[in-house]
Amino acid sequence: MWLRTICDMSFEVEIPTTFILMLRQRSGANQWVAREEYRIRPQVPVYEFTDNYGNLCQRLVAPVGPFEIFTSSDVLINDLVDQAPGAPFVEIDKLPESVLSYLLPSRYCESDRFNDMAASITEGHAMGYDQVKAIETWLRNNISYLPGTSDIAISAIEVNERQSGVCRDLSHLGIALCRSLSIPTRLVVGYLYELEPMDLHAWFEAYVGGRWYTFDATQSEITGGYIAIGYGRDAADVAIFNQFGPSVTLETQRVEVQLIEEEKL
Amino acid sequence: MWLRTICDMSFEVEIPTTFILMLRQRSGANQWVAREEYRIRPQVPVYEFTDNYGNLCQRLVAPVGPFEIFTSSDVLINDLVDQAPGAPFVEIDKLPESVLSYLLPSRYCESDRFNDMAASITEGHAMGYDQVKAIETWLRNNISYLPGTSDIAISAIEVNERQSGVCRDLSHLGIALCRSLSIPTRLVVGYLYELEPMDLHAWFEAYVGGRWYTFDATQSEITGGYIAIGYGRDAADVAIFNQFGPSVTLETQRVEVQLIEEEKL
Amino acid sequence: MWLRTICDMSFEVEIPTTFILMLRQRSGANQWVAREEYRIRPQVPVYEFTDNYGNLCQRLVAPVGPFEIFTSSDVLINDLVDQAPGAPFVEIDKLPESVLSYLLPSRYCESDRFNDMAASITEGHAMGYDQVKAIETWLRNNISYLPGTSDIAISAIEVNERQSGVCRDLSHLGIALCRSLSIPTRLVVGYLYELEPMDLHAWFEAYVGGRWYTFDATQSEITGGYIAIGYGRDAADVAIFNQFGPSVTLETQRVEVQLIEEEKL
Amino acid sequence: MWLRTICDMSFEVEIPTTFILMLRQRSGANQWVAREEYRIRPQVPVYEFTDNYGNLCQRLVAPVGPFEIFTSSDVLINDLVDQAPGAPFVEIDKLPESVLSYLLPSRYCESDRFNDMAASITEGHAMGYDQVKAIETWLRNNISYLPGTSDIAISAIEVNERQSGVCRDLSHLGIALCRSLSIPTRLVVGYLYELEPMDLHAWFEAYVGGRWYTFDATQSEITGGYIAIGYGRDAADVAIFNQFGPSVTLETQRVEVQLIEEEKL
């Protein structure tokens, strides 16, 4: 399926402020970016670099006044995300080096504190994909998904105490639980077609059976429509924008995801 | 200045053939890619990766039949490239690690064989930028630039024997000469506004005075209009496309570079 | 000064267990490793790789029974660590790309929660080195250094609540405070000559004035004798050993640091 | 088998000269470095870094006068190198990204010029390991191995013209032939136990059947005893030492490889 994404943000900047953005989508095994726009106004110099996780990031200094970022892309993805019940746990000594850092606890995923809880939730499930699926199901049934309720990121421990959260919060708890089982797990930030209400979204991927699989406890079932913008250990690594200064206000943010017909590309 | 680039290629493929492409431009210190299109027909899975030089590459298997690649971008660059007469040679022990590999001889730049010639050409010039400028001037005056005359890449030694070549050939000889003076030098493939006749272009960059500077012996003077697609030690590293198989024909290739007004972006 | 280090560990392993070790010291700007031993018994295959922070890591599967690791090195370091009162804060847009990830909050350094406290501690101090020094002094005066009291890592928030901790804990709080001021800060694990009681040690480095400087709130003053084993965002990234399994006991650990005369090398 | 290596070099330096050394062996899938010494006299600051191929390199400025480098290591390797007749060719679209650069022509391996010759030598052999073995056998039978005869590196084309060469030369021709068949191939520099006459050695590795295999046309048969120091596309990438200046003389070089009993480690 071909999707067209738009993410349009406007800021009010009171003093010149450095931004680090992560809004250039990359083509990968599961998505092909055939068109991309990335415009900023006013135009200032931008330095693009690749971070430790392979994301393309942009660094710039926004001047005083209104600052606008417009991004849009046409992306081809599969109609359905792959699922693999029974896909086995990969022993640590067999994991590719590139996934090892996704075993470690991180800012919002204190996996070193969830051993017992993860064991309890996944009891009786085969090691690997089925454990992750059990965790996703548990999250769906036990942590209320309340989009739009949280401004600042909270950690898995805090999510577990509140028993509710936004998409990012449910993912953080899911990641912490999976990592405590020694399953590499990462946060993905991106777009989801037909998300209600439409916004940027976050979900998680677990490495089982020799590859990454998609999980999302906020949806009643996983079908398709996921477009990744960035990957990381948690939301600390995958901020769509980080501004380093106290005097910036996000005034508006518009997110759209449309189905497009190939002929109209 | 804002430029719009187009590179459109069509191939005829007789047996399924793997391509490695380098046609996704990156934003960098000297260019901002505000819009980009990258379309292939028929649509096949594409895997994008970053090579040792930071270029984004695409790997795919083209099926039997016609295969088309269309890329286009809107890029902001400075009106004039920077020049820095007198910029000093950087001692090897002060060079950033990332530029060290550009000191070594490479496939088409046998810098280990040009010591005497480089010394002779640059005699009396200050070490650094002025040496490179002397080499560029020497190339312009001594090696005939004959666009469109060469199909296969030849090396600096061969270029020096023929005393003529395409843009890539002049650059290879320039690179070999600079490296023999221990100046890090790299090949750039990309677009040049108002190039006559219009085509993809190649030039070289030398690291002096703490940064990379642009040199191009094919033009009577360097002004501006350079858009980079890829960087590498020489043309072996920076092929716009590498096809691994004997049965592919490049049927057509169209390259355009247009000046665009910002309002029309 | 030349120092000889020894770190000798013995484990009892009940089921075959994967270890990821970080015990191969690297030579760097501040230390030269002239001799190194790294022995394991029983001998099993070891795969060495470089992590995201440049550390050399070793992955192996320890068999059932006793498992011993012996490392030793002869390292040349400066007699005194550099100090630089007045070294300025580096604006975010001027930081090298490689240090940007040290601005982010991490598992044990919740820098997103320390803005007010860091502002209060550093009030009246010049931005940069002097702020970090004020934080180090504050830690020394307000957080009791109690070596040997903690088994599991606790986070900066928890350290701040307890008002005491081991070397790692004081460093984590120091890092969280510095990062909340947008100063890149990292944890270092290694050896300290004449540490009392002798053990592996942890301290932190802050990037100000264009380079990394050493800070250590556990010592009444910083002189010299620091040898780094590994760097990372916090203790989650810099574990001397990570074992992935429940059935491993660290039976003994011996750490020594001796001054050696160059003639006896 | 446990081997002890020694490489001892002394230079006479007339003006301060930057060296880039590649003399720190790394542990890898096929070798475990249990002890290592790396001493330089006089002691100067050394900066160690990792190059594009994963080698540890050391950069330093040697002062005027005698300059000595002593390295030694104890390394565990398998008694026999693996061989795999019939191991298949890996299609380009299935190769890991990390091996793709070993498909390209390089300074001393002009693989773009050997298509017909490689096809002729390997005619009738199964694609993959058997092709490489046919090339190794052809080299052994057709290119005279004359250790100690060459000072400066010559390229595969030149080796083919001379019909003789040192270990590095035979490897370069082997690499060029393999790459022209789209088999990733790399040069290895290191030690070989019982090499006659003893010296540093060079051989090549080809990626077939999903991993790297060792080939060496200078020996009548490949058994074991290979210890790698560095990997690269060819000798331009894998110089044990590169000195950047005209006024350095290598006065003596001593290489030893001894079998050691494990008890004496």
UniProtKB/TrEMBL annotation, chains A, B, C, D:
<dbReference type="Pfam" id="PF01841">
    <property type="entry name" value="Transglut_core"/>
</dbReference>
<keyword id="KW-0645">Protease</keyword>
<dbReference type="InterPro" id="IPR038765">
    <property type="entry name" value="Papain-like_cys_pep_sf"/>
</dbReference>
<feature type="domain" description="Transglutaminase-like">
    <location>
        <begin position="159"/>
        <end position="219"/>
    </location>
</feature>
<protein>
    <submittedName>
        <fullName>Transglutaminase-like putative cysteine protease</fullName>
    </submittedName>
</protein>
<dbReference type="GO" id="GO:0006508">
    <property type="term" value="P:proteolysis"/>
</dbReference>
<keyword id="KW-0378">Hydrolase</keyword>
<dbReference type="InterPro" id="IPR002931">
    <property type="entry name" value="Transglutaminase-like"/>
</dbReference>
<dbReference type="GO" id="GO:0008233">
    <property type="term" value="F:peptidase activity"/>
</dbReference>
